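Postdoc handover notes: sequence design on the structure in folder B. Input tokens:
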């Protein structure tokens, strides 16, 4: 288990992370979210042991993280961290040897993953000769060659087309099934919803939302009603508690303050013609994120 307990980090007088706490258990994918400058990268670097904490504790299986423990961690950074003049094989050996792997094992594992990701022909190509998407594949492969106990994924789908995104998804879920703990960070909220069991949202280093995703969505008061019907938009908007209405093709999304408004909306909608759909939905994580982050920035 990874434990981050009351961790704070200062750069001089600037507080980048403030009293951050969370736990990740084996086989769990945890979301660490926030806009740029929220403190995510600082947190990743403290977990990796690349930055010292100002206060608090970070442990992996009840042990402080040092060079022995970091051998069990994989880290896919948002920025490209590949050496452009090295070949894919040289790059894999360079990084994986730092984690205690021997050259023979590295090459065997690399061959396995290159075949899985359908890029075996790039094994002896220089990094600079590869497309952005294939560089991302190599960076991902290198981050998991050591079959890490803890894997940090920062914007893992950057530069990938939909087919390759699906390949990455399958591999991430395989790692989860094999009990890898995964920290997942992305600005694409649909990916967070797809993968994450629990999450933390940071704003300016402070935790503004934390918990299991199912509980967060359940507790968030605002709801959406999906309707297919011939609506009088102005009449629906006049209902107390209706916040907004959006139309996408032949479907309306009616945003309401809370579930107590549903009956009032249904009474109005049921009078219209061609009512083919009336479904109350939980808000999307994107809506919750924008709301919570926006509230903090307005303070």
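Designed sequence:
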């Amino acid at each position: 288990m990874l434990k981050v307990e009351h961790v704070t980090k200062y750069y001089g007088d600037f507080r980048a992370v403030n009293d951050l706490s969370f736990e990740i258990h084996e086989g769990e994918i945890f979301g660490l979210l926030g806009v740029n400058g929220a403190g995510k990268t600082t947190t990743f670097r403290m977990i990796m042991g690349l930055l010292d904490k100002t206060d608090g504790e970070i442990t992996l299986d009840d042990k402080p993280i040092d060079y022995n423990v970091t051998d069990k961690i994989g880290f896919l950074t948002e920025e490209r961290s590949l050496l452009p003049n090295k070949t894919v094989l040289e790059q894999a050996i360079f990084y994986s040897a730092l984690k205690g792997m021997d050259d023979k094992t590295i090459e065997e594992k690399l061959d396995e993953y290159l075949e899985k990701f359908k890029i075996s022909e790039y094994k002896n190509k220089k990094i600079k000769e590869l497309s952005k998407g294939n560089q991302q594949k190599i960076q991902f492969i290198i981050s998991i060659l050591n079959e890490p106990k803890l894997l940090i994924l920062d914007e893992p789908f950057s530069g990938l087309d939909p087919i390759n995104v699906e390949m990455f998804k399958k591999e991430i879920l395989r790692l989860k099934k094999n009990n890898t703990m995964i920290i997942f960070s992305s600005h694409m909220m649909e990916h967070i919803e797809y993968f994450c069991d629990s999450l933390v949202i940071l704003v300016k280093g402070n935790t503004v939302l934390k918990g299991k995703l199912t509980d967060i969505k359940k507790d968030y008061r605002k709801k959406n009603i999906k309707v297919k019907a011939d609506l009088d938009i102005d009449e629906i908007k006049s209902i107390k508690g209706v916040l907004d209405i959006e139309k996408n093709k032949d479907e309306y999304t009616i945003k309401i303050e809370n579930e107590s408004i549903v009956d009032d909306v249904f009474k109005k909608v049921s009078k219209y013609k061609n009512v083919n759909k009336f479904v109350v939905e939980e808000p999307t994580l994107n809506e919750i994120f924008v709301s919570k982050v926006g509230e903090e920035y307005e303070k």
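Context for whoever picks this up: Residues 2-217 form a domain with the Rossmann fold fold (CATH 3.40.50.300). Don't rerun without checking with the PI first.
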